[in-house]
Every structure is written in structure tokens, then in C-alpha cells.
Amino acid sequence: MNPFSKIACSPADRERSRSNGLAAIDCSWVHADDIFEVLRWGSSRCLPYLIASNPTNYGIPTKLSTAEALAAALYIMGFWERADEILSKFKWGSSFLTLNLAFLESYSKAKDSAAVIRLQEEFIPKSVAEET
């Protein structure tokens, strides 16, 4: 998982993930630019618009913890039970699914990265889109 990738995680990544696994780097958002710039191996994927439920970034779009990112990717690719297993380790884990269920369900039905990105554009509030 790479927040700077131009390709969104989608159901089309399911078999690649099943064969090769899924990896995420656990680092502070403060250092993310530096860390991900040096990582150039593998098939890099970003996550679409989702809202954090972890105590540090609760309610902040795209500022997910590593556990949230892994669970979201797994959910989008159709590995719902694995996503739930990861989130069950945290007191706040179930709130991630509550906050994002409509997003995750839609993304998990998309055909590919392009379809996920189109859905994301529908979900991002206009006020957030205007800031970028």
C-alpha cells in the first residue's frame, strides 16, 4: 500500500494479492513522503477516499492507520473476514467499518482502479475537493 500511488486498490487486485501478499509500511504521516519515495518495488496501490476512525486521526479523511489501510484494502479486494480480523484487535476497529461501509461496499463492487477513482470522486465532499 502506497498513499502516493496513481493506481487505486480495486477488486482487480484480488488474485495478485492472493498470490503475492499485501504489504503496508507503518510510519508516521510526517515522514511518509520520504519513506515512500525510496520504495519503488512491487505493485504500488493507493486507497480511495476513506475516513479514519483511529483515535489519533478520527474523522480525518485519508489519514488512516496502517491497520485501517490493510483492512480497507482487504475489504475492497473481497477478503472481508480478514479485514474484520485485523480491525477486531482494536477497540475502535468496528467504528472504521461503520464510518466507511458505504464507501467500502461501493469500491468492492468496482471493476478496476479507474472505476474506484470515479466512485471516489463522487464521495469526496465538494469542500474537500476545492481545497486540493
Describe this structure as you would to a colleague:
This protein is mainly α and 132 residues long. The chain has one domain (11-131). The chain is 50% helix and 0% strand. The protein has helices at 14-20, 32-38, 66-76, 80-87, 93-108, 113-123, 126-131. Helix 3 packs antiparallel against helix 4, helix 3 (66-76) runs parallel beside helix 5 (93-108) and helix 5 packs across helix 6. The radius of gyration is 14 Å and the shape is globular. It starts with 13 loop residues before the first helix and ends with a helix. The mean pLDDT is 86.
Q: Outline of this structure?
A:
With 132 residues, the protein is mostly helical.
First-residue to last-residue Cα separation = 22 Å
Report the helical percentage: 40-55%
Largest sheet: none
Structural class by helix and strand composition:
mainly alpha
Number of helices: 7
Give Rg in angstroms.
14 Å
Question: Which keywords apply here?
Answer:
mainly alpha; 132 residues; 50% helix; globular; 0% strand; 7 helices; single chain
